[in-house]
Write a structure and sequence with these properties.
Helix content: 40-55%
Number of helices: 11
Order of helices and strands: HEEEEEEHHHHHHHHHH
Radius of gyration: 38 Å
Shape: elongated
Length: about 250
């Protein structure tokens, strides 16, 4: 079969190089010849540079005359190559109208130097979620690496440094019941350019007495809130299934 295809190459495409016959299908009405291009590379029509990087392929259907009363269909698969200087050519076309006087070769050499020169190794930037986690977690639970990352972020951003100080100061008031420090904390927040904390401070200031009591006294409404959540859960479980009488019994007896 291989010898037959090679013979067909010589007969059908003797004047065309880099073409190979894949198959020939003959029936009553049509002669179908599948051909592919075997070229190892091509010259860029823009800059003339030789390229062997295959980008893809596409089909072409060259017209041919009938043979023995049958129509002939040539299906030619052609390779498409990628020019490494395509970006340089586009850049040169864009900067020439902007009064650039240099040649295309200068632009191509500049981009080649940029591509081949070693790039500096830079550390990956932490995500906002990671930074928020470092700020909100207890300092004692952070690893040494996380401590160093947070220290670097705080050194390069005054807003994050101020936010970290305010958050940790509020956590200290909350865990150690130091409600008397709340007015000083609110004043310190207002002195920094932190709009989100300003909104929080305004909300706390509207109910300052209750917040101070919550940060100072040992009592809280946690038990009440727990019962409220339990009642809401029972209500959702029984929605559309029973009446108020059964709901009352479940609330009182559970």
């Amino acid at each position: 079969m291989t010898e037959i295809l090679l013979r067909l190459d010589e007969l059908l495409f003797s004047s065309i190089a880099d073409v190979a016959v894949l198959s020939v299908d003959v029936n009553i009405a049509i002669v179908r010849v599948d051909v592919r291009c075997t070229a190892a590379g091509a010259s860029c029509p823009g800059c003339g540079a030789w390229s062997a990087r295959v980008h893809g392929s596409y089909l072409r259907f060259p017209a041919d005359v009938p043979s023995a009363g049958r129509s002939v269909v040539l299906q030619l698969r052609v390779r498409r190559f990628t020019c490494r200087n395509a970006d340089a050519w586009k850049l040169w076309e864009e900067i020439v109208p902007l009064s650039y006087k240099g040649s295309y070769q200068h632009v191509r050499a500049y981009l080649r130097l940029k591509r081949t020169s070693p790039r500096p190794v830079t550390a990956r930037q932490p995500s906002p979620q990671a930074v928020a986690g470092w700020i909100l977690r207890r300092p004692g639970t952070l690893s040494e690496t996380e401590h160093l990352h947070l220290k670097k972020v705080r050194a390069n951003c005054r807003e994050i440094d101020a936010l970290t100080r305010h958050v940790r100061s509020f956590v200290t008031m909350l865990t150690e019941r130091q409600g008397e420090r709340l007015p000083d904390w609110l004043d310190a927040v207002r002195q920094d350019n932190l709009p989100s904390l300003h909104a929080l401070a305004a909300g706390i200031d509207r109910d300052r007495d209750a917040v101070v009591a919550g940060l100072t006294l040992p009592w809280n409404s946690g038990v009440v809130e727990g019962h409220v959540n339990r009642i809401k859960m029972l209500k959702r479980q029984m929605f559309g299934r029973a009446g108020f009488a059964l709901l009352r019994k479940r609330v009182l007896m559970s």
